[in-house]
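Summary for the steering committee. One of the milestones for this cycle was to obtain a three-dimensional model of the protein with zinc ion bound, which we needed before selecting residues for the alanine scan. The sequence and ligand used are listed below.
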Amino acid sequence: MKCGLEIHVQLDTDSKLFCDCPTNYQDAPPNKNICFVCLNQPGAKPYPPNKKALDGAIKIALMLACKINPDVTFFQRKHYDYPDLSSGYQKTSIPIGFEGDLNGVRIREVHVEEDPGQYKPDLGLVDFNRSGIPLIEIVTEPDMRSPEEARKFLRELIRVLEYSESARGEGTMRADVNISIEGGKRAEIKNVNSIKGAYKALQFEMVRQKNLLKRGIEIKQETRAFLESQMITVPMRLKEEADDYRYIPDPDLPPMLADEERVEYIREEMPEPAHIKTDRFVKQYGIKKDDAQVLTSELELADAFEEVVKEVDPEFAALWMRDELKRILSFNKITYKESEITSAQLVEFFKLLLDKKITTKAGQRIIENLPHNPKSPTLIAEDLGLIGVVEEDVVQQAVKQSIEENPEAVSDYYQGKKKALNFLMGQVMRITQGKADPGDIIKLLKGELDK
Ligand SMILES: [Zn+2]
């Protein structure tokens, strides 16, 4: 199969694309965030496009390794007739970026357009709060070969969007999924609203199309809708061609030059995309790719790692941050940023471990106490009485030593004298300076003696 995606996500701005209405449409009562402009009342002219939205789109295009259109960005009118669109056309820009790449999937183009309102066909009601919110649309080439590849791509794309801090997340995603299999025509699936949805829609469509071909039935070029509740696709209409939209340049919106200086400024300021950071972590710090992927799952976590490894061995830090830190973050259902753990706390914590001032087990308990806690890890360890407890291998060593040095007690033990065990434990306590757990010592002693 071949699969291409068109992904729409809202850009994160305070006001709409062509007016000053706020964009917090979910918190507002219906039809509250509206004005003459975003209702497209006769005679109301759009304001110049929201600069933050355009800059955000340029940033995302750059992070997707796109070339930036050097000439003009102008908006076109894409005509279609539906109750969610009061003007009868959607203002959509020509590509801002093109010919990009994300992990081997080619990005055909990136552009900006306005979100339509929300239409509820069953009630016949329209809420225009969403109308005019800036959307970024990212169009890929048909480079994905399986539902799994499409899912992987979308996960990576959402990471790019999160890193950009210019777009809202998967929650505002709407995707169109194109799929064709050998011997058939292309079907476009609409209404896909999540990564899981895209995966399920592709799986369903792949099986449906294969079965048609098997039975010798022609696959038409058509648009289908994904029904999320049932995880199936149903016919919507025969595919419209670009001509059907009767694109014309919008005479209300003057063309704009994408000023080279501005693009360069954004390029310098933009964060390194996660997939590129992952490869760099592997090369620069010699850590495993799996570890690097986990560490770059969140920008703040990746930044903290880079701070920590200025003072701590990268492999050691990667292991702890990937396993134990991620464990407590997911247990608490928080991001690293939300945990308020500082890289200074992590450095101090790792040094306690590396200097063997605390055991691995103690470390697991201390790290559980780090979220939302400004205290130093040393203080936390002291409060929990975990400083200076010795590692199991040290205790094991002391156990062996006490057995070797006290053959009489050992032979007493074999003759069934219980006191001998207590004597040997006392010896271990002496060697470890009282910092081993008595229960552990008994266990280890018995293990050694009963071999
Ligand atoms: Zn408005």
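Key point for the committee: The chain has three domains: 2-265, 272-383, 392-449.
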